[in-house]
Amino acid sequence: MKRFYKDVASEQVPDGFQVLLDGKAVKTPARQTLLLPTMALAQAIEEEWRAQGEEIVPASMPMLRLANTAQDGVAATRPEVIAAILRFGEHDLVCYRAESAAELLRRQREGWDPMLEWAAVELGAPLTVTEGIGHAAQPPVALAALERAVATNDVYGLVALHVMSSITGSLVLGLALARGAINPAQAFHLSRLDEIFQAERWGKDPDAEDRAHALARELDVAANFLKLSRPA
Asked: Cα–Cα distance between 228 and 70 in angstroms, integer?
């Protein structure tokens, strides 16, 4: 799509904050006026629009994509989104340990046990750990605690948490990142202990490395989106 505007701005309105293109409010794909919770997030999306060249490249506007998803999608399907996020807790990466590789198991214990302790103490969610890939049923009290932690989020938090949990394969890591217990780099590293171990043994796959870098950038964007969506 050709760029159709010259000026970009942000403004506060009674219901929130808007991004304006030549004085007209940006619309979501569902043709709603995009309303944002903070000026900081509006300005971040404003910068994405301002950075476009002669052609508009939607892939270069991840903040806008997340905001559209929050307003058009999550707002209308909140219970379903919460349920989808909780599935990452039901099969949480940090609960599944290596069966035979002693060094990998050591790294998992060193990196993941503190996260499980954090979940037990901070969230009231004592999760069950198992070896191998067979499903480990989690205690109902832990799942209920995780559901409460997820449900405290507004639509912007839910969008970010879904991305963060999906990339890491872990609701525990997603919640720890969302609550500031770890940073994006730490969350991504902890989610890739197995991949890092295998690359050390068998060598790096350039395609896999490219995918990992792209996921790391996506995780950074989600974490920043969440931060910007919260009032200072």
From this structure: 14
Query: 3-state DSSP call for residue 19?
Result: strand
pTM: 0.95
> How far lies 34's CA from each of 29, 94, 107, 115, 136, in Å?
9, 37, 44, 36, 42
Compute the C-alpha angle 107/210/58, nearest 5°. Answer: 125
For residue 204, pLDDT beyond 90: no
Choose which CATH entry (2.40.160.50, 3.30.420.40, 3.40.50.300, 1.10.3580.10) describes domain 77-229. Answer: 1.10.3580.10
Segment 167-180, tens digit of pLDDT: 999 999 999 999 99
Asked whether residue 108 carries a pLDDT value surpassing 90, the answer given is yes
CATH 3.40.50.300 for the 8-61 domain, yes or no: no
27 strand-pairing partners: 33
Strands (E), 74-127: 96-97
Which whole-number Å values give the CA distances from 163 to 19, 68, 133, 152, 193, in the listed order? Answer: 24, 14, 23, 17, 19
Token reading at 172: 């525990």
156 Cβ contact partners less than 8 Å away, ≥ 6 residues apart: 37, 41, 66, 67, 70, 225, 226, 229
